[in-house]
UniProtKB/TrEMBL annotation:
InterPro entries: Fungal_SecMetab_SDRs, NAD(P)-bd_dom_sf, SDR_fam. Belongs to the short-chain dehydrogenases/reductases (SDR) family. PANTHER family: CHAIN DEHYDROGENASE, PUTATIVE (AFU_ORTHOLOGUE AFUA_5G01530)-RELATED, SHORT-CHAIN DEHYDROGENASE/REDUCTASE. It comes from Naematelia encephala. GO terms for cellular component: cytoplasm. GO terms for molecular function: oxidoreductase activity. GO terms for biological process: secondary metabolic process. This is Uncharacterized protein.
Amino acid sequence: MSTDTTIVLITGAAAGLGFATVQALLESPAKSGKSWTVIITSRSAEKSNEAVQVLLKDAKLNGCEVVPTELDLDNDDSVERLVKQVKEKFGRVDVVVNNACQHLDFPLRDGKLTTREAFNRAFNTNVTSTHLFTQAFMPLLLASASPRLVFISSGISSLGAHSDMRIPINLPPSAGWPKQWTFNVTTYRTSKTAGNMMALEWARLLKNDGVKVFLIDPGRLATGLGGEDPASARKSGAGEPIDGGRLVKSVIEGDRDEDEGVLITKGGVIPW
């Protein structure tokens, strides 16, 4: 594969922040002067193809390439098939963006899942499967001349900010039991906190391999994450997905290299 293109693999890229990141990458050529080759993954090959069709309709590719693929992050065979596919077609990957995740607190609230099911599924995807996926792609990432590994996190994963009562999600509910559901996202935020440690372990493991590792909090966006209605999210202050996508692009392009290994947000960094 030509070295004149930067190969970016994004999990969960057919919608939400992942799709917005693809849009951001295609807005302008890479600062390096290289073109982008973006591998879009989704649980459904049909959704990946639909995402590419939207991009072809709405965006100018400017010599870039978007490649739709199928990936069930929680299925080892699916991961192995994708590794083989990428190896045969490209021989390397320059940037891996671990974006796919499970946010199950709203289905839990609505009685569609038990607490155990919500916790197990969130940790399986957001921590275990993300770790194994990264491990599977490590040989292809290390084949890059300038490898970057990105983990999408969340500001509400911060232990340091957990007691900050200026943040509405941290306000304690009224006394008594059982607690009335207000805005409780315990399974999501605890799995993301665990994911931060997993990402830091990758940073430690790859310290002498030349891989730059980043964690990004894109902020609360109107992406429909967890089943939240985007229109309602916007009314309550959520940002546009493309803004998060542009933040991820800036990290991919090296604009935030001084913040390697910490939790990055648009306005700076977030305490652990």
